[in-house]
Design a protein that fits this description.
It is built from 3 helices and 13 strands. With 217 residues, the protein is of the alpha+beta class. The protein folds into 2 domains: 5-50; 64-213, Glucose Permease (Domain IIA). Strand 6 (136-143) and strand 7 form a beta hairpin. The chain is elongated.
Amino acid sequence: MSVAREGILFIAIAAFLTVTAYALALSRRSWALWLLAYALTLVALWVVYFFRDPERTGPRGDDMVIAPADGRIVMISEVEEPAFLHSRAIRISIFMNVFNVHVNRYPVSGHVRFVHYNPGKFLNAATEKSSLENEQSSVGIETQGRRILVRQIAGLIARRIVTYSREGEQVDQGERLGMIRFGSRVDVFVPVTSEVLVRVGEKPVAGTTILARLKGR
């Protein structure tokens, strides 16, 4: 199993602390240190698990919008999207808890036409308010004459959004877009003419689950 490059430092720190605790436990023959070492082992394993980066395959196509994140769909609503689509859009919101894979992926293939980072608060990412006030990074993609926006939103615990996107670059559906550390949310904005194929409460898989089909131009 591979891990995201953003997690290498965290994994190295957790491993160092664990090895140090075992070394101290051996040298001082302390049960308290043995318990600490065991606890740190569990933490280190969890850090590796959190930053896992599995390969994903699934359906692909110009008319498909693929899930950019693992998690649970918490909202599907029609909203105004003034930043990139400049029109009404359907927003599909996916909430990621600390046990989900946090690597985000491009929902469509196309050219990146818009990248914008907005600093903000760290409210509960599952709420409506977070979409307006939380730290977030938006990536707009133009595909086959249509516009799709992906928005990474930080949450209560998340304090670091990573976005690989650069304006003008060509990206492929299912390719890695970035990640958010330790719990967060990803919104996808599609044209109102799109056919949504998921419902609130469902658990999509990034790079695999089809969220919607694009209709018209």
